[in-house]
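Study this one:
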Amino acid sequence: MSDDPEAKIATADALTLLLHNQHALAASMEEVIKWFSENGVGIVADNAMTAMETLDVNARAITDAITRLRQS
C-alpha cells in the first residue's frame, strides 16, 4: 500500500463504511434468526448463527485493519 496519508485515510474510511454495513447485516440476521427459532425452524437458525460467527470474525479483522491504517 502507498505511504500516502490521504490514501490511508480514504482506505480506512471505506473500510469503516463496510464495517457499518457488516453490523447492519448482522443486526438484520439476528432478527431473522430469532424468527426462525420462535417458529420451529431450529436447523435454519443454527446455520444462520454459523454465518453470524463468520461476520463477527471478519468484523474484528476489519476493525483491526482500520486501526492499523489510522495509526500509521
User: Anything to note?
Assistant: The longest helix spans residues 5-38. The chain has a mean pLDDT of 92. Residues 23-71 form one domain.
